[in-house]
Design goal:
The complex is a heterodimer of chains A (248) and B (262).
Chain A lengths: L1 H16 L1 H21 L1 H6 L5 H23 L1 H7 L1 H6 L5 H30 L9 H25 L6 H14 L12 H9 L1 H14 L6 H24 L4
Helix pairs in contact in A: 1-7, 2-4, 2-7, 4-7, 4-8, 4-11, 7-8, 7-12, 8-11, 8-12, 11-12
Chain B lengths: L1 E10 L2 E11 L4 E5 L6 H8 L7 E6 L2 E2 L4 H7 E4 L11 H11 L4 H14 L15 H13 L5 E5 L7 H18 L2 E5 L3 H7 L2 E6 L2 E6 L1 H8 L4 H9 L10 H14 L1
Parallel strand pairs in B: 3-8, 3-9, 6-7, 7-8
Antiparallel strand pairs in B: 1-2, 1-4, 4-5, 9-10
Classes of the chains: A mainly alpha (248), B alpha/beta (262).
């Protein structure tokens, strides 16, 4: 237990210490909020859909949770490169604990990031319909953060260095972001797009948080919970399996 | 304390370690010498549970490495060839993290950490981030960390690489002191022959995955009819320069160094 807690705390301490990383990771969601939010806002309104910021904000929150989570997992490659991974692998503790400590730490950092971006959206003009639903939204943020941190760890376990990084960005993180329904509503989409969106796990996170905060929803909250709950279990399992095989 | 029998490690078709056997007594300082790519690091990785042997038996501190991995791990202190500290944490945080991983008794944790950090003369710098440390300071911190949980066997993989003579002298004095005081067994590899000659009780020379000589420095010199361990070593392993292929990790490191310079 102490192992998991200690490694969890390590992720947190490192995050809070890297001021530049925090500021840097807020610049991107802010840019998206301003550029897309105000850029497409009037078109969206003219199409009779209402306030675009209200629609977009939950998507941006989830987008930045996704980024932070995946990279918290992938920074396992740096642990390996700086050699710190060896220190944990030769310690008399099960690898599962090491993986869980890192995953929970990364997921916590990503969730904090989500909360900070939520505050940012408030500054831009986003207003939740029902403040009482905030804990529900947070719960789903935590699920999404756990899923993608585990995914990051699974990927990092297979990679030796950062060579494959661009590949992951372009073929994984970007598609997951842009096909998640974070930026556009699903109705009226071409069939193939609709299918892609429904395959994308982030769609269910976006949907759940959007429903919790604004009442707009494509799927039902129970579908979201089912999909994300299953994926959390599956990816924790996968992450730990891959991590089990890491050799240094 | 260390018993290795018919240990072999194969990577695909390449045999890095080829059927080696040796044993190290309690309290002994044992040096493992060999040219680049001879199989030193692979052996150390197997002994420290980082790598699973293809075949053979390893018994450390009375525990078979296969069946009692965690007991074995608790008995080992390890100073790796490359630093394995977390640069973004302070020196003290690195020590505390290690204490937690090795479940060092909570009551004595603080004193033990302070004692060891004073021992390696880093207590005043305990609140500094490790990334601000020089190579020598990092190595000292790693030694302190390796000793934190009272290991029965200390593994040192080229601990003096890249250190100035002053730091090297200090470092060995810590190690020899602990070896004497606690009867801790030491297993080390090094490229500095005079270090091995001065410090090690016995020396094994490994080349092409096989142990080609084993004995005290004097015995090796006598066997090869040379006057120093260095000459004996060259006589045993030949004068050819060995090349090692860079792994993905080495390439990454090189790139990082390039960034740092600019």
């Amino acid at each position: 237990m102490e192992t998991i807690y200690t490694l969890w705390k390590r992720q947190l301490v490192k995050y809070l210490r890297s001021k530049s990383r925090i500021i840097g990771s807020l610049a991107q969601p802010l840019l998206f909020l301003v550029a897309f939010g105000f850029g497409f806002g009037s078109i969206y309104q003219r199409a009779g859909e209402g306030n675009y910021i209200q629609f977009l904000a939950p998507g941006i929150i989830l987008m930045s949770v996704l980024f932070t989570a995946i990279f918290s997992g992938i920074d396992l490659i740096w642990d390996r490169q700086f050699g710190f991974l060896k220190e944990t692998l030769v310690a008399p503790v099960p690898r599962l604990y090491i993986m869980l400590g890192k995953t929970l730490g990364g997921a916590t950092v990503a969730s904090i990031q989500g909360v900070v971006v939520f505050l940012l959206t408030l500054a831009i003009g986003f207003r939740p319909e029902n403040w009482l639903m905030l804990p529900v939204a947070l719960f789903f943020v935590v699920l999404v953060a756990t899923i993608f941190t585990s995914l990051g760890i699974a990927i990092a376990s297979l990679l030796e260095d950062m060579q494959g990084f661009q590949l992951i960005m372009n073929f994984l993180v970007m598609p997951i972001t842009f096909l998640s329904g974070a930026f556009f509503p699903l109705d009226g989409l071409p069939k193939f797009m609709e299918i892609l969106v429904k395959i994308d796990p982030l769609s269910y996170g976006v949907d759940a948080v959007r429903f919790s905060l604004t009442g707009i929803s494509e799927f039902s909250l129970s579908t979201d919970l089912l999909v994300l709950g299953t994926l959390t279990a599956l990816l924790l399992f996968l992450g730990s399996q891959f991590f089990e095989r890491v050799q240094v | 304390m260390i018993k290795v029998e018919n240990l072999t490690k194969q990577f695909k078709k390449f045999t890095a370690v080829d059927n080696i056997s040796f044993s190290v007594k309690r309290g002994e300082i044992f040096a493992f010498l060999g040219p680049n790519g001879a199989g030193k690091s692979t052996t150390i990785k197997m002994l420290t549970t980082l790598l699973t042997p293809t075949s053979g038996e390893i018994v450390l501190n009375g525990f078979n490495i296969k069946e009692h991995k965690d007991d074995v791990r608790k008995s080992l202190g390890i100073v790796f060839q490359d630093p394995s500290l977390d640069d973004d944490l302070t020196a003290l945080e690195n020590m505390e993290l290690h204490a937690a991983l090795y479940q060092v008794d909570r009551q004595h944790r603080k004193e033990r950490i302070q004692m060891l950090m004073e021992f390696v003369e880093l207590w005043d710098r305990r609140k500094s981030l490790v990334k601000t440390f020089s190579g020598g300071m990092k190595r000292r911190l790693e030694i302190a960390r390796g000793l934190l949980h009272h290991p029965k066997i200390l593994f040192l993989d080229e601990p003096s690489l890249g250190l100035d003579p002053q730091t090297r002298k200090h470092l060995w004095s810590y190690i020899v002191k602990t070896n004497k005081a606690e009867g801790m067994t030491v297993f080390m590899t090094t490229h500095y022959m005079e270090e091995a000659e001065k410090i090690a009780d016995r020396i094994a020379v490994i080349d092409h995955g096989k142990i080609i000589a084993l004995g005290t420095a004097k015995e090796l010199e006598k066997k090869t009819k040379q006057n120093s361990l260095e000459e004996a070593f060259l006589e045993l392993t030949g004068y050819e320069i060995r090349e090692e292929e860079a792994t993905g990790l080495d390439r990454l490191r090189q790139r990082r160094q390039m960034w740092k310079r600019h």
